[in-house]
Amino acid sequence: MAAATLHCVLRRNSLLPLFETRRLRDLLFFSSSVDRAAAVGGTISPDPHFMVEYLVNSCGFSPPKAAKLYKPLAHLRSTENPDAVLNFMRSQGLDGAGIRKVISGDPRYLCCNVEKDLTPKFQFLRDLGLSESDIVDAILNNHAIFRLNVHRSIVPILELWESLLGSRELVLKHFKNKRWLFSYSSEKRMHPNLKFLTDECGIPEERVSIIVKRSPRFITQKPESLRALVVRADELGVPRQSRMFMWTLDVFHNVSKERFEAKVELMRSFGWSESEFSSAVRKNPTFLGISHDMLRRKVDFFFNVVGYTPSFIADKSNLLLYSLQKRVIPRFRVTEMLKLKGLCTGEAKFPSILTLSDIKFLEKFVLPHKENVPELLDILRVAGVCKGK
């Protein structure tokens, strides 16, 4: 079963040896010792609102912002623990703006026990091979790790991402830059979605991985949302065994039903039948991600300038993916000028011409005629395709 295979991969690539197992017992978000520590030392006040002043003076928040944040801290009667947390964060390289960002995410971080809650997690990040600046970036984008248990949450999530993305380097790259990496439960979303796709839909794990590498948040959506996407793909007649099935799901994940229906109406206005629209999606669903206005302009050009029929474009919907301004229009103008000069043999059809790289197009259709038809280069320069020599 796919789930068993995945489990083996996770165990084989385990991150647990990166740090000492004895640390794991102490990595709960709030320690019972916090209240005891808060009762002594630091500034002591019976006024529950004194933390508002603390957030202003020690953290740099504006009074209105501090007033919104202080409620989870109203039980504190001492600044000893918040002082320790702030000092620790500063020692780890977080500046004032970074600290405010973290605390804004959850003021209760000021209640963390530095030795039990924070120090081991920063050590774990260093054990992963992250530099101090990398750790700061990771914390600012994933400050939720402060409230996660390393053994039960952080390690399993990192292992699962590693199995999906294919390398630890890529995982760490996302970890440093993507704030959503720890925003979703692997048990409530990622694992159920993987099991549904592989076991119930019969999609090979490698195909799922291809989409996740391109669009990691695809696998973190709600399981019921993913099932709804599968229903939409089934209704269009996209075979689950087709390589286009996962691409269709990915497109549907980013294209709402409203935007999808708007594109159906647009293509219907240009003469596409319902079956032609479905056929185009089955062959190349990516065109659905094009903005409504740009899709209209592309279809209008192919239909009314190039002269293609709706059925022709439905059969070759990949043509809609090419840049209109940088590829389609300039290459069409070049080939039309060559025909006008009697220099185009007609051996190459325009759809094939569009597939050529810029260099290949220049070598085959422009450079051989640069002496007799110098305006060909001008066409490409205006389009921004041909620069300098």
Automatic annotation (TrEMBL):
PANTHER family: CGI-12 PROTEIN-RELATED (PTHR13068), OS04G0637500 PROTEIN (PTHR13068:SF242). InterPro entries: MTERF, MTERF_sf. GO terms for molecular function: nucleic acid binding. It comes from Musa balbisiana. GO terms for biological process: DNA-templated transcription termination. The lineage of its organism: Eukaryota, Viridiplantae, Streptophyta, Embryophyta, Tracheophyta. Keywords: Transcription, Transcription regulation, Transcription termination, Transit peptide. Belongs to the mTERF family. This is Uncharacterized protein.
